[in-house]
Every structure is written in structure tokens, then in C-alpha cells.
Design goal:
mainly alpha
């Protein structure tokens, strides 16, 4: 923590946007753009100096991994086709709606979504040895999280927030939210993974 003088709040806001743009934008705004939007209230040196101060104060811990950071790599390793990829993404996006899912690390969530999707599409083995090696997670270790994801998937049609489900009902997303094995699973809900 570091105290901030009120007249420096705009500078901190500009520097925070400057740093965020470096991570999120393909073509991030330049320092001159930030000087312009502050109506020349701060110089290039002010912005760079505050950037160094801010990054040092945060110990350069400015990016937290999310499932999205790991998804492509793990989808490739699991050899997912387009439909399988969409199903995994659907499951992971449903997890965003449930605060309880934040207790799982991003890598654990992706691995559990892959395990569940492998089961739903009937892939055998459910959790191949190359996935165990890559994730350092066994099928047994992923089981609890996969069952929680399965519950979210089963509850999706009745959930009061429908935007994600509607997104995955479209053909653009290969309509994975209406795939037959999702309704088949509900009929066989007592069968373990």
C-alpha cells in the first residue's frame, strides 16, 4: 500500500490504463496519447516515473492467470475438434457464473472441463496419460471439480442468467448447448463420471 495525494489520482488512473493497455491491446496507445487526454497535465517523465513506482509497489504482480490463458494449449494437447473446443469453452463460461468455482485454480478448472467434456462426448480413455503428464492431475484429482461443472451444465437451462447458454445455442458456437448428450446425461444422472 502506498498513500496517494488527491491531485495525483488522475496520473495514477492514466498510468494504470497505460500498463493495462500494454497487456490487453494489440496496438496500445502511446504515452503522447495519454498526455493529450490529460490536457498536458502530466509530462512523459511524470507518466514513466509513476509507472515505475506503481509496478514496484505491486511487485510487478499485475496479471493473474485465467482459464483463457491456458485453454488453447490444453485443447491442443487433448486433441479437441471444433465442437469439443466449443463444449469446453461453454463449460468454463458457465463456471464464471458461480462464485464457488474461484476456489479452483485456472489450470484445475480447464483440466476438469476437459475431463467432463471427454466423458460427455464418449472419449476413451477419459483422461489420457499425456493429459496426466501435462496437467500433473489424475482423473481422480479432477473428479470433484468436474462434478461441480457437471452440475452447472445440468442447471444451465433453468439458471436465471441465460446469456452464456444462448450464446452456445447458436450455430456459430456449433450449438453445443443443445447437444443430445447433455440431455441424455440428465436421464442417467446417477451414473458416475
Amino acid at each position: 500500500r502506498m498513500p496517494v495525494i488527491r491531485k495525483r489520482l488522475q496520473l495514477i488512473g492514466i498510468v494504470a490504463m497505460f500498463v493495462a493497455c500494454k497487456f490487453e491491446e494489440i496496438e496500445s496507445p502511446t504515452i503522447d496519447d495519454f498526455i493529450y487526454i490529460t490536457d498536458n497535465a502530466y509530462s512523459k517523465e511524470d507518466i514513466l516515473s509513476m509507472e515505475c513506482t506503481m509496478l514496484n509497489t505491486l511487485s510487478f504482480k499485475i496479471v493473474a492467470p485465467t482459464p483463457a490463458h491456458l485453454l488453447h494449449y490444453m485443447l491442443s494437447a487433448n486433441r479437441c475438434d471444433d465442437r469439443h473446443q466449443q463444449l469446453v469453452q461453454y463449460i468454463l463460461e458457465l463456471a464464471l457464473l458461480d462464485l464457488r468455482m474461484v476456489r479452483h485454480s485456472p489450470s484445475h478448472l480447464v483440466a476438469s472441463a476437459l475431463l467432463l467434456s471427454n466423458e460427455l462426448i464418449g472419449r476413451r480413455p477419459l483422461w489420457p496419460s499425456q493429459m496426466v503428464s501435462l496437467t500433473r492431475q489424475t482423473e481422480h484429482n479432477l473428479r470433484t471439480c468436474a462434478e461441480e461443472l457437471r452440475s452447472l451444465l445440468d442447471a444451465a437451462p433453468q439458471h436465471f442468467l441465460q446469456a452464456i447458454r444462448k450464446k452456445y445455442l447458436h450455430e456459430k458456437r456449433l450449438a453445443v448447448a443443445r447437444m443430445p448428450y447433455l440431455s441424455l446425461h440428465k436421464e442417467n444422472a446417477s451414473v458416475p463420471l
